[in-house]
C-alpha cells in the first residue's frame, strides 16, 4: 500500500505519450481528459502520501518529475497548437526546465529535498486548470486565453522566485560555507 503514491506518479509519466498522441491528432477533448486524469492522480498521490505517511525519497523525486515532464510536454505541444501564445509557453517551458536541472543537480549531490511548498502546488494547479480549459475550449476568445496564460505565467514565475531562498539553502548544503 505504501507504494501507491509512487505508482500513481509513475502512471502520470506513462500518460504523457497518450496525451502527445491525442494532441498531435488534434483530439483536444481526449488530450484534456488525459490531463484531467493526470491532475487527479497527482492530487490523490499527494493526499495518500501525506495522510498515511507514505512519503518516500523516490516519491520526492518521482512526483515533481512527473509534474515537470507533463508540464514541459504540454507547453511544447500547446506551443505548436496555439503558436500565437508562444511567449507564455516559452516562459513556462524555461521555468520547468530550470526546475528540472536544479532539482537534478541537488539529487545528484544527494541533497534530501523537502516536498513542494504551497506556492508550488498553487502554480501546478493553476497550470493544469488553465491548460485543461484551453484544451477543452480551443475556440475560446483570444483575450480570455491571453488572460488565463498571463495569470498562469505570473503564478509560475512568482512560485519560482519564492523557491529561490529554498534553493539557496540546498546549495549551502552542497557547498559548505567557505567564509571560515
Structure description:
The chain has one domain (4-174): Four Helix Bundle (Hemerythrin (Met), subunit A). The protein is mainly α. The chain has helices at 4-24, 28-51, 57-81, 86-108, 118-136, 142-174. The radius of gyration is 17 Å and the shape is globular.
Notable features of this structure?
6 helices, 81% helix, Four Helix Bundle (Hemerythrin (Met), subunit A), mainly alpha
Largest sheet: none
Rg calc: 17 Å
Give the class-level CATH name: Mainly Alpha
Q: How much helical structure, as a percent, in the residues? A: over 70%
Number of strands: 0
Let me know the CATH homologous superfamily. CDP-alcohol phosphotransferase transmembrane (TM) domain
SS-derived structural category = mainly alpha
Shape: globular
**Order of helical and strand elements:** HHHHHH
What proportion strand? under 5%
**CATH architecture type:** Up-down Bundle
**Helix tally?**
6
Mean pLDDT: 89
SSE map:
Blueprint: H1 4-24, H2 28-51, H3 57-81, H4 86-108, H5 118-136, H6 142-174
Helix pairs in contact: 1-2, 1-3, 2-5, 3-4, 4-6, 5-6
